[in-house]
Automatic annotation (TrEMBL), chain A:
It is a multi-pass membrane protein. This is ABC transporter permease. Pfam families: MlaE, STAS. It comes from Salinarimonas ramus. The keyword Metal-binding does not apply. GO terms for cellular component: ATP-binding cassette (ABC) transporter complex. Keywords: Cell inner membrane, Cell membrane, Membrane, Transmembrane, Transmembrane helix. Belongs to the MlaE permease family. Could be part of an ABC transporter complex.
TrEMBL record, chain B:
Signal peptide: none annotated. Belongs to the ABC transporter superfamily. This is ABC transporter ATP-binding protein. GO terms for molecular function: ATP binding; ATP hydrolysis activity. Keywords: ATP-binding, Nucleotide-binding, Transport. InterPro entries: AAA+_ATPase, ABC_transporter-like_ATP-bd, ABC_transporter-like_CS, P-loop_NTPase. SMART domains: AAA. Pfam families: ABC_tran. The keyword Mitochondrion does not apply. Residues 21-258 form the ABC transporter domain. It comes from Salinarimonas ramus.
Amino acid sequence: MAATDAPEARSPDEGTRPAPQADAARGALALSGDWTSEFGDTLERAARSLTEGATGGEAGAKGPVVLDLSGIGRLDTAGAVAIERARRAITARGAEPRIEGASRPHARLLDEVSQAGLELPEHTRTSPFVDFLVDVGRVMVDAGRDLVSGIVFLGEVVAALGRVAMRPWRFRGTSLVNQIDQIALRGLPIILLISFVVGAIIAQQGIFQLLQFGAATFAVDLIGILVLRELGVLLSAIMVAGRSGSAFTAEIGAMKMREEIDALRVMGLDPIEVLVVPRILGLVISLPLLAFCASMSAILGGGLVAWAYGGVSPDVFVARLREAIDLSTFMVGMIKAPFMAVMIGVIACIEGLAVKGSAESLGQHVTASVVKAIFMVIVLDGVFAMFFAALDF
Amino acid sequence: MDEPRRIDEAAEPPPGRDAIIRVRGLEVGFGEKTIFKNLDLDVYRGEILGFVGGSGTGKSVLTRAILGLLPTRAGTIEVFGKDRATITARERRDIETRWGVLFQNGALFSGLTVKENVQMPMREHRHLSQAMMDDLAMLKIEMVGLRPDAADKYPSELSGGMIKRAALARALALDPDIVFLDEPTSGLDPIGAADFDDLIATLRDTLGLTVYMVTHDLDSLFSVCDRIAALAEQRVIAEGPIETMLASDHPWLRSYFHGKRARAVANESA
């Protein structure tokens, strides 16, 4: 191979290219073929046989060894690294390798590689048991921190609300209307649909079970109380946490990633006031409305099934319903809605603002937002159940 | 680099030089808008081609069209002698392992460390042992001038200049024949930009790279580019070494290469 600067042309069909080889001949190790990364394992085997040939052969592991590169076709960095590793291994075993016959571009590449450290930064090894304990500890500390940061954030939101109340002209009405449109109006069809289906299922099961006691009409009590106290608001809150909570986290998180939040801050705008307050207020207004619609839809679904499946005619259904429920049943459900809305909004916004620079981080926080919000909505529902039971409401 | 340009070797192309990329009669447009019409361009093996054009004339669009990220309306794009429109899936995959791309903002995978980013193409297209890939990744990271401890960092922990270098390391992962650089020195300070220019020239010499560089950086155009192609009026209006650009009468080229900033750079490098 003549000393030339022109890199040789590559032919893309791998099969016809000579594989890298190392052969012992006339006191020297002759390298031939293409030493390129396409050959993968073969390349690494050739490099190992180079080391073996130089140190394990007839001459033992002493004295100079010549690596003759004049027969090499193409050489890329993977090939150069393989040769360099072999050279270092041979040196480590006590022989003195010398590279000969390399063309100018090959020599330059080998030179570049031989100057590189090729060392990975040190990793400290730890035992899995200690790692486990560290993880458990970290989860506990994080949970505590979440609680504190949630309360701090809630305080900031209340403070921002106070500022807005002092200067109402700074309130972002358009943004609020947009949020209500997104949360309530666009979320309404799916929430109506699932509530209708759930109401129908409860009616069917209730009638089916109560029929054994000849008390099918009591299924109306079951539907009315269950839907108005618990299911309407719970279904809406879970749906909103999945639909709008995830959207909040993703929107705010993407803005955080692209430094838009910092841009707001340096322009003298408070991100809480601009981004968080309209969203949380939008939720607080929308969720009770959605919960009401969901309850009505569920009762309608239950009523239709009671009529078609249980033979309870609409006028009997309504009369029975009026006896079974009173205003407090309805209020228990509706009172919970704004609290759940604040919970969902605060969790979604905290997670959004916690997003770091990567797309992976955004995904993790959106997931965390939805999971935490749904979990907390259910916990809150349980707390309210105990509270109302204690009040006998 | 003690010798800033290699005029003797690369500036005067011998006739019939090996063109890695050959674009003929290309037309690209979006909806009603036509970006190029009848555009011709050659990129020769072993050269550093600087590609200039005003903002919004479609420099990135052309790069994306050559890379196959955009549909074309007419014309042919030959890469390594093969027409993009007629190649098989296998040939296309082969081509895609033979070029490296440095996107304007790096486009590093944010969920992977720098080292994993560099190893990603190796892992997908080559059968190498983990130890070999580690060595190779560290070599590329060192070659582009990053410190070894950057290898285990995530892209969000890197500065703008480091992201460019890390992205270049990934572009070089499979020892490509050609690298596409989209504004590689934008956002770097002058020292960092000059270092990057030197780095590209050094890599061209050690690895036998061909470099296609979209740039606005007059320093890069004067110091490392063997040839320059200028995009205006929906086509390549001029190509050739910097002298050709300076001698051109085209009004846009005159204002580009004879503006106040260009004169300062030209005087410096003269």
